[in-house]
């Protein structure tokens, strides 16, 4: 991570989306009528919805999502003001909804870059706190820039 004034830049490995033929059975009823596409990476299920409004107004069934264990669920759609928007839920890992999740963009950016035909993308994570991100796909890396909220400070001591 690199500080750039009041913003931070993350340089993450690109994690290409893996197209899957079906959703985990426990969540099929949650997205049966409005899933446009779905894919996965090694730790999350991604579901593309038809519109930004559907992403913003989605009411998660956290008990059902928790059945996935530590696997998270990302919902995403093209945006009206931003290239794409998303939300991230992982109640089985103790995260009902993460405010802004840099790591999911390592997969969202290559997905939307291909769909939209552009390498530089604006993104909005539509949690209650929300966060605007500027993203760039570079070969096998994804650059993500945005503001960050401090949630913890710590020192790590290593033995000599």
From TrEMBL:
GO molecular function (one): isomerase activity
Keyword field contains Metal-binding: no
Keyword Isomerase part of the UniProt annotation: yes
A cellular component term, taken from the record's GO annotations: cytoplasm
InterPro entries for the chain: Phenazine_PhzF-like (IPR003719)
UniProt keyword annotations, A-Z: Isomerase
PANTHER family registered for this protein in UniProt: PHENAZINE BIOSYNTHESIS PROTEIN, PHENAZINE BIOSYNTHESIS-LIKE DOMAIN-CONTAINING PROTEIN
Family: Belongs to the PhzF family.
Name of the molecule in the record: Isomerase yddE, PhzC-PhzF family
The species this protein was found in: Pseudomonas synxantha
């Amino acid at each position: 991570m690199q500080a750039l004034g009041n913003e931070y830049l993350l340089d993450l490995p690109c994690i290409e989306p893996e197209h899957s033929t079906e959703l985990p059975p426990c969540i099929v009823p949650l997205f049966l009528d409005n899933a446009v596409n779905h894919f996965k990476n090694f730790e999350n299920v991604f579901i593309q919805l038809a519109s930004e409004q559907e992403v913003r107004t989605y009411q998660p069934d956290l008990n059902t999502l928790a059945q996935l264990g530590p696997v998270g669920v990302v919902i995403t759609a093209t945006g009206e003001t931003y290239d794409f928007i998303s939300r991230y839920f992982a109640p089985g890992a103790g995260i009902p909804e993460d405010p802004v999740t840099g790591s999911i963009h390592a997969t969202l950016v290559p997905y939307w870059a291909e769909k939209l035909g552009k390498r530089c993308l604006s993104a909005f994570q539509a949690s209650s706190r929300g966060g605007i991100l500027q993203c760039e796909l570079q070969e096998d890396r994804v650059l993500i820039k945005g503001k960050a909220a401090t949630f913890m400070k710590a020192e790590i001591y290593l033995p000599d």
